[in-house]
Write a structure and sequence with these properties.
Layout lengths: L14 E2 L2 E2 L1 E2 L10 H14 L9 H20 L7 E4 L2 H15 L6 E5 L8 H10 L2 E5 L9 H7 L4 E7 L11 H10 L3 E5 L11 H4 L3 E5 L10 E5 L1 H4 L12 E4 L4 E3 L13 H17 L1 H20 L4 E4 L10 E6 L4 H10 L2 E2 L1 E3 L4 H6 L5 E5 L6 H18 L1
Parallel strand pairs: 3-15, 5-6, 5-7, 7-8, 8-9
Antiparallel strand pairs: 1-2, 4-10, 9-10, 11-12, 13-14, 14-17, 16-17
Helix pairs in contact: 1-9, 2-9, 3-4, 10-13
This protein binds ligand 7TS.
């Protein structure tokens, strides 16, 4: 990775507690390059207006730039623009999917299959759908090494399974799930496959057609883009069947006092004024990542993960969660130090300017599965360097010496 990339991220120049910032929490959210900050600001400065309504030149220009951003996001994941619904992020996208499939596909007595490694964003919407529709929620288990137990998943698939909702890359274990294989099996029983791609789309080449899922959710803020914008990709014929989650302006055809007809996707799912500047910012983030190349992004993540993983595994007082092979992981490592609470580790590292996350990372059932309340997690992105990983590791050794 070109070391100059770092210079594109103004925030990385700052200090924390008098020390240079080492930001290792990109799995929570990523920092923004100047190109993204400027794209958003330029829109406000030069082309700002609402979308989908005005006939005046500025409104047409704003609309053009909003739709241009949609086309960029679509091409980034191998899709058509009409299949990309802008949402506030992964959470909203998954709620939209769970609501829509609950209304159209899930019947009383049916099953929804999730996994034990889901982020709450891909669990709670399905709990709600199951409760609302009188369906059953089942979960495929995770092996001790942090992989999905595919035999268990297969055993839990049946003709009753209407939806299989799973994460592509676990935000705790780093596990990369074999989505294409699982999707093929799920389709064999007629289930719809919903993929939480919040931790994959930012970090590796993703082609929705190759994955074989039917609906795919991700967030802009984890891929160098602004907050408040994300997307739900859906197979066009499936999107056409789904009802909207939000009703209101600019998502309808015809409105009478007692009834209305929905617009076509994606407009149907974007009721109200959407996050226009944020979508344009996400378009700039996609341009930025495309310039680096997603293969290079993945390689860099793998290199930093391999470095951290190798060093952590060599320390007898450190427990690492998830697969030990960096080649089959996302760019993050969750770990714990024997007998020390993850919050204490994160707090002491912060004193040295190092930002990692300690907690349950919105995956409480997964932590319960491993019999622990929390873990520490270091996560990496394009702007991180091997030197930063080494600084983190030596600071971690000092934390261990101080608290053991
Ligand atoms: N799914 C996964 C796998 C995630 O990692 C996250 C956010 C979400 C869904 C929700 O995304 P949002 O953009 O809608 O909030 N994960 C994390 C995390 O690991 N630490 O902070 C947020």
């Amino acid at each position: 990775m070109d070391a100059r990339i770092r210079n594109d991220f103004p925030i990385l120049d700052r200090t924390v507690h008098g020390k240079p910032l080492v930001y290792l929490d990109s799995a929570a959210t990523s920092m923004k390059p100047r190109a993204v900050i400027e794209a958003e600001a330029d829109f406000y400065r030069e082309s700002y207006a609402n979308v989908r309504r005005g006939v005046y030149a500025l409104a047409a220009e704003a609309n053009e730039r909003y739709e241009e951003a949609r086309a960029k996001v679509a091409s980034f994941i191998g899709a058509q623009p009409g299949e990309v619904v802008f949402t506030r992020g992964t959470t909203e996208a998954l709620n939209l999917a769970a609501w829509g499939l609950g209304e159209t596909v899930v019947e009383p007595g049916d099953e929804i299959l999730v996994t034990e490694m889901e982020h709450h964003a891909n669990l709670l919407p399905w709990q709600e759908t199951a409760r609302r529709r009188g369906a059953r929620l089942a979960a495929a288990v995770v092996t001790p090494s942090g992989e999905l137990d595919l035999d268990d998943l297969r055993a839990k698939l049946s003709r009753r399974t209407k939806v299989v909702a799973l994460v592509h890359v676990s935000n705790v274990l780093g596990t990369v799930n074999p989505v294409a294989e699982i999707a093929a099996e799920a389709h064999r029983v007629g289930a719809i496959v919903v993929l939480d791609a919040a931790q994959s789309v930012p970090h590796m080449p993703v082609d929705v057609r190759e994955l074989g899922a039917d609906l795919v959710a991700f967030s802009g803020h984890k891929m160098l883009g602004p907050t408040g914008i994300g997307a739900l990709w859906g197979r066009a014929d499936l999107l056409a069947e789904l009802p909207p989650l939000l009703t209101g302006g600019e998502m309808v055809r015809e409105v009478w006092l007692n009834w209305a007809t929905w617009d076509e996707p994606p407009a149907r799912f974007e009721g109200g004024t959407p996050p226009i500047a944020q979508a344009i910012g996400l378009g700039a983030a996609v341009d930025y990542l495309t310039r680096i190349g997603m293969e290079a992004v993945r390689r860099h993540g793998e290199e930093l993960t391999a470095l951290a993983l190798g060093e952590l595994l060599a320390r007898p007082h450190v427990t690492v969660y998830g697969p030990h092979d960096p080649g089959v992981r996302g760019a993050l490592v969750a770990f714990s130090l024997a007998g020390i609470h993850p919050h204490d580790v994160a707090t002491l590292l912060d004193q040295e300017g190092i930002a990692i996350r300690g907690g349950h990372h919105c995956a409480q059932p997964l932590h319960r599965r491993f019999g622990i309340p929390a873990t520490c997690r270091a996560s990496f992105y394009v702007y991180n360097t091997p030197e930063e990983v080494k600084r983190f590791l030596s600071a971690l050794d000092r934390v261990w010496e101080a608290l053991r």
